Amino acid sequence: MGNSGSRSLEAILLVGGQGTRLRPLTMSIPKPLLPTAGVPLLEHQLARAAAAGVRHVVFATAYRAEMFAESFGSGGRFGLEITYVTEDVPLGTGGAIRNASSALRSGPDDPVFILNGDIISGHDMAAQLAAHEKADAAVTLHLTTVEDPRRYGSVLTDAHGRVEAFIEKSPTPVTDQVNAGCYIFRRGVIDEIPAGRPVSVEYELFPKFLAESAPVLGHVDPAYWLDVGTPAAFVQCCCDLTLGRVQSPALPVQGVPALVAEGSVVAPDARVEGGSTIGAGVLVASAAVIDASVVMDGAVIAEDARVTRSVVGRGVKIGPGVVVEDAIVGDEAVIEAGNELRGGIRIWPRSVISGTSVRFSSDM
Predict the structure, then answer these.
(1) Contact 81, 56 (CB under 8 A)
(2) Does the first or last residue of the chain, that is N or C, have fewer Cβ atoms within 10 Å of its Cβ?
(3) Residues 311, 234: contact at Cβ < 8 Å?
(4) Tens-place pLDDT, residues 255-285
């Protein structure tokens, strides 16, 4: 079939979800558009897809669909052509793939990448494609290995990499290989997905392929992989990108203690570290500490405040001496002096927490 550099590969990018686990961050913006190390989360995926030879990407959108076109346009700045297809009703992973396939141009035997908009991965997409073509597979799944597979459905493969079984979450997993959410489908296989109704890839399509003895391949690549589904994972993703723990062609600078956008002011005796990212127009006052956190555009962090492993939304005002630890503060909220926000607490946008209202310790 030739190598990926000599042809135009296509991909479907699944970005329809509402990102409810990341509220309140996702109440005004879809999860794939959240800023991660200074660029939208999706930009890392698009840059990696382009580097692997993908030239046409179909966005399968639903929630706040218009915001994707506003952010990425026709795709030219990534060396891509982007087409947008919107679901009127939720169709599940398989149904979304089938719905978006109307915009594909590939022939029936051509490979099509299926990417999830909330995954950050360092795996070798070109190697996955080579394995897919060598095996003449119907579908090739990227599998990663995890320390505790009990939290995931696992995927059993034989000595040749063919998938033998998809195993539900189990207290005694037989393998540490799990589905990492990047697939390659043979174009003709996508046409076999039922149209116009919800279809689950994991619970309907893949078991059907196995029952029919279709060649389903598991490509194991244990490179960096993270499902950016929870607040803690989102913060980790941003920090790992900044610190260079996973490479992204979307970022001009990595491997630094912090990224501070132009136009932000950080006091000389303030500390910004741990892979933190500071958005545009942020003010970090004297003796404030921001560690392993995300501070979005226009926020103000007053003197002596401490922000650790947290997300501070756009236009937030954090008062003097406030402690924000393992927390999310929604856009334009005001946290006055004397408050401690800890332990996964979420403050909704435009809330005002008046002075010394929330405490986890008895001292002041």
Answers:
(1) yes
(2) C
(3) yes
(4) 999 999 999 999 999 999 999 999 999 999 9
